[in-house]
Amino acid sequence: MTVPRCYQLCKRAKYAYFGVQHSKQCWCGNSYGRYGAKPMSQCKQRCSGNRKTFCGGNWRNIVYSTGLRSSRQLPGIRHLGCFLDKGSRDLRKYAGSGRMTVSKCYKLCRGKSYMYFGVQNGNQCFCGNSYGRYGVRRITECRKRCSGDKSTYCGASWRNSVYATGVTPPKILTPGLRSLGCYIDRKARDLPVLAGRGSSMRIPVCYRLCRAKKYLYFGVQHSNQCWCGNTYGRYGVRPKKECRMRCRGDGSTYCGSSWRNSVYATGLTMNDIMPGLRYIGCFLDSANRDLPKLAGKGKMRIQKCYQLCRQKNMAYFGLQYGNQCWCGNEYGKHGGRRASECNKRCSGDSKQKCGASWRNSVYTTGLGNQGETKLPLSHCSQHSTTWKAPCIRAIDGNTNQHFFKHSCTHTKTAKGAWWQAKTKKLARITEITIHNRQDCCAKRLNNFVVKVDGRECASYRSSAAFSVRTFSCHLIGRVVRIETRNKVPLTLCEVQVFGHYVVARAWPPAKGVRYLGCYVDNKKRDLPLLLNSRSKTTRNYCYKSCKARGYRYFGVQNGNHCTCGNSYGLFGRASEKSCRSLCQGEKSTYCGGPWRNAVYTTGVSRPLASTPGMTKLGCFIDKTARDLPVLGGSGSMSAAKCYKLCRGKKKRFFGIQNGNECRCGNHYGRYGRRSQIECRKQCTADKTAYCGASWRNMIYTTGLDLATSSVGVRKLGCFVDRAKRDLPHLYAAGHRTNKAFCWRYCKNRGYKYFGLQFGNHCTCGNTYGRYGKAKSSTCSSVCKGDRRRKCGGAWRNEIFTTGLRSRRYKTPGMLHLGCFIDAKARDLPKLAGKGRMTVGKCYNLCRKLKYRFFGVQYASQCWCGNHYGRYGLRDKNECRMQCSGDKTTYCGAGWRNDIFTTGLSARPKDSAYLGCFIDNAARDLPKVVNAGVKANSHYCIKLCKRAGYKYAGLQYASYCTCGNSYGSLGRVSNKQCKMTCKGDRREKCGGPWRNSVYSTGLKTRKVSTPGLKYLGCFVDKATRDLRREAPKGHMSVPKCYRFCRKHKYKFFGVQYGNHCFCGNHYGRFGIRPNTECRMQCSGDKTTYCGAGWRNSVYATGLELAST
After folding, report:
1. In angstroms, how far is CA 663 from the centroid of its own chain?
2. Per UniProt, what is the membrane topology (predicted)?
3. Which residues make Cβ contacts (< 8 Å) with residue 338, sequence separation at least 6?
4. Same-domain check for residues 382 and 352
5. Contact at 8 Å (CB) between 45 and 57?
6. What span, in angstroms and rounded, lies between the C-alpha atoms of 1107 and 1105?
7. Could you list the residue range(s) of the whole structural domain that residue 843 is in?
8. 735 three-state secondary structure
9. Computed from CA positions of residues 853, 856, 857, 860, in that sequence, does the dihedral angle turn out positive or negative?
10. Distance between CA atoms of residues 419 and 483, nearest Å
11. Whole-model pTM over 0.90
């Protein structure tokens, strides 16, 4: 086998393609590739007839084209598959037989405008517009060669190779067509009307049939049936896969299945099938029927009631309670309700709403009411004018919707752009029709409101544009206004108003009468006086009734009630649409609605009175033990009169009760607050205002504030408190707690500061803030005596100054040291005075006596001393007794001293601190005194100086050490001398074996002693080390030096403070440490003169001649 040989074989056999395989096989066909392509590397077996070329591989074809033409080159042709055929043919039209090819059958069927053709058994041609009714088969079952073209296949026995001709069916316009889903059908059909059936059925055909019959919905079923109806879905919805039977007339789409409808909308609306139908709203009904004629009941829906009432020539119909149909030429006499109250499903169509119990869903039948006519408009105006398009174009009768045909208005771009016009007379406006611009920009008019005399009657908000739309209104007035809510230009091509004129009564009846709005009411009554006026009910009647009783406002409610009061709006505002019940005494106007007051002013004004600072606080309970204790007056009473009475009594609050009582006080609210509804008795002297009620005070402020900055009161902030009080004096003020009361309470007791805590406590003190400041938000408890204000919080003080100040004294150097315990053996020993004591007075007394410290105790005692603290320090809380001579300061407490410094110097001026030095048992400073609680620098320096020492040391907090030299054991850091002195807690007194060393100010007397040199400390005995003894007595080192030098001795020694010895040699008994020679000289205590049997030995500076 070779490639050229295989080519000739397959071309001769009329095949389009050939393949060489396994080096020696040749295969022919009209299609290829059903098993996929492979890499050429798998087709590398060499041809048996030509080893230079490849001939496929094992189960691998190298495929070539023979060059013969394939049916694929015919325009629009598309192979659809192999399909089963039967005696009742799948493709109905027999086109021919004989020497058949695919292209020949294609031309026969395309010429007859068929969408599909099939070749069968190699020689037959069939045409049709649908296929596949008997099912699809494998492509291998359609492999019989065409009798006219062996290169292609033409089906097989009872098997069609089906192709598309490329012809498309004529398009049927289907505006509004929308798929709704797959729904169950039964013998009692879901869609009741059979519009058609047959082999040409497809979706557009059924759409056209049902739309022509004015049905809202259609369904295609079992591939060839078309059903129509205005409702659907009564047997339930199913998944779309259950509606997968191909349409007989279009095999590319589905037409339901057995007992399954593929349901679609025709695009028609209720107005299309029921001309003139329009939903008006939900309206109240009663035994005295709003729509008087019962047209039918039972299985009810909108279409049925529409037809029943239209047959009776009625203008309106209403559906009630799901199954009732009522007709009439008027509606709304019992008032409108919210649309949500008409939500009962229709018994004949669960997708529709048919009113509710005593609620009508009202519609128009389109026949019209004899009284409703088109009302001419005039006196137009608009927000602005551009494009030379004035307001008159919207009422000129020209409904052309093309702007450039000079029929439409045009304003400037603005938010709230408006257009308005007036009717000839007062009218009840039922409908307003607006013609929108259509040549462009229709979507500009997609968010606007329609108003009549300023009251909204309709609105529109949608992303969709409209051409012409009618709005239901039902308001009485003259001025019709259209106002945008978007920032757009307002363009109107025509505005038409429908309704009828009404007889206008004089309104408003007097100057000052003004409509305020529609307001909610309930059993507690927004306007407290209710008059059941029934058939008399008109706005004029209610106005006169309420004005005669002195009220400022009146309301009309539900068409048959008047309400009066001096305030309104307690329960909030309501929609204007809910105040549309017709007045029973004047059918042309509205008088509120069910539990809705249309509120007006009566024109009665409140008497003018100057009441600066007066603020209404609310309604509060009173009892026999009065909340406001002072009776200001009774009789003919008003708020202004009571204000003057209580302000004259210097009270911060006043309350009026039972219409005629005036009560005053500085705190209020102890029995609790009540709703303002309970304080609505008219004042006897001013009927336009309320003056409480029985045991109810309407409370106001007089504007007085006793605790003001003018008297020195200043807020300091919110501070933390604890069990050991920051401000020590605590008073449970209860219902009296407010700023003014606590200020007065603490000031009268002489305190500098006052605080309010937890809404019901006063706290007083002379200092504050020891526990730190708190967030102001934590001081949020309401004052029990003034609910407008905050009085601290839980463990939080809101602190203020009282305005009191401490007495001023000149006290230089005074420093507070703390609170210290005292006992019978006094800590500060000197009692300087007692009686009317102050800190400044005690300072002066003790400073005059030259004491360094003073303490005030038990409010009236003054104690002085030079050391303190022997019994220990206590918390400052224990020293907070007010001074008897100045209550703004503290003077200790029982057995507690509040101790201060007098400012006198702690040590002599010639004394100086020298540092921290090591000590041990041999003592750096030899004299040691246990000073105990007296230990401080002042005491020890004085002690050592009096003893004649040059240096003083303080050790281990309570010891004084003295000496004439220091530092023999070395110096250390001051940090090692940090023990607090027992006699002065401000100072440091050394540490363990550590001396804080000071100079005492004493100095050694200067004497000329040439050649004098200290040699050390030496032992002496009865047989003297230095043989010559000088006279003893008032001895010093210079004195002994002069004596021994005079007698020509080389050395001298001072011993035991008053002995002098001379000699020319020394040391025979040995040397000792200097610490054993530290007895003060009797003649100069600033120097040492040996000790018992110890000589401090010196050289005189003389040298003996050598022999």
Report:
1. 43
2. Single-pass membrane protein
3. 282, 578
4. no
5. yes
6. 6
7. 815-901
8. helix
9. positive
10. 7
11. no
Domain boundary (271, 287, 314) is at 271
Tell me the C-alpha distance between 264 and 243, whole Å. Answer: 13
Kindly state the tokens that stand for 408: 């439409």
Answer with the one of 638, 667, 701 that is the final residue of a domain: 701
| pLDDT band per the 50, 70, 90 thresholds, residue 269 | confident
Spatial CA neighbour of 590 closest among 358, 775, 336: 336
Query: Both tokens of residue 746?
Result: 């603490």
R_g of the chain computed on alpha carbons: 60
- Please give the Cα distance from 329 to 316 (Å, whole number): 6
DSSP 704: -
Strand partners, 1059: 1055
Q: Does residue 639 sit in helix, strand or coil?
A: helix
Q: Residue type for 398, please?
A: N
Backbone φ/ψ region at 433: left (φ over 0), alpha (ψ -120 to 50), beta: beta
Mean pLDDT of 822-844: 93
Residue 467's pLDDT is 82
Number of Cβ within 10 Å of residue 213's Cβ equals 14
- Distance (Å, rounded) from C-alpha 131 to C-alpha 192? 29
| Burial track 589-600 (b if 16+ CB lie within 10 A, e otherwise) | bbbbbbbbbbbb
Q: Cα(1075)–Cα(1093) distance, rounded to whole angstroms?
A: 13
What distances in angstroms separate CA 1091 from CA 892, 1032, 1053, 1084, one per listed residue? Answer: 52, 14, 11, 15
**DSSP one-letter string for 739-796:** HHHHHHHHHHTT-SEEEEETTTEEEEES---TT-B--GGG--PEETTEEEEE--BTTE
Per the CB < 8 A criterion, the answer to whether 691 and 606 are in contact is no
Which tens digits make up the pLDDT trace of 401-449?
Answer: 889 888 999 999 999 999 999 999 888 888 898 999 988 888 899 999 9
Q: What is the mean pLDDT of the chain?
A: 89
Asked if residue 998 is part of any domain, the answer here is no
Are 546 and 562 a contacting pair, CB within 8 Å? yes
How far apart CA 385 and CA 783 sit, in angstroms, is 61
Residue ranges in 176-299 assigned as alpha helix (H): 203-212, 270-273
- Both 755 and 744 in one domain: the answer is yes
Q: Are 326 and 259 members of one domain?
A: no
- Taking the C-alpha atoms of residue 1047 and residue 123, their distance in angstroms, rounded to an integer, is 174
Indicate if the alpha-carbon torsion angle 278, 282, 286, 288 is positive or negative. Answer: negative
The model's pLDDT over 341-391, given as tens digits with 9 standing for 90+, comes to 999 999 988 888 999 999 999 888 877 544 468 899 999 999 999 989 999
Backbone dihedral angles phi then psi of residue 647, each to the nearest 5 degrees: -65, -35
Does residue 1053 share a domain with residue 1035? yes
pLDDT value of position 808: 79
> Does residue 280 share a domain with residue 266?
no
pLDDT digits (tens, 9 = 90+) for 748-791: 999 999 999 999 999 999 999 989 999 999 999 999 888 888 99
Residues 490 and 383: beta-carbon distance below 8 Å: yes
CA 45/CA 54 separation, integer angstroms: 5
Which two three-digit tokens encode residue 918?
A: 């090591």
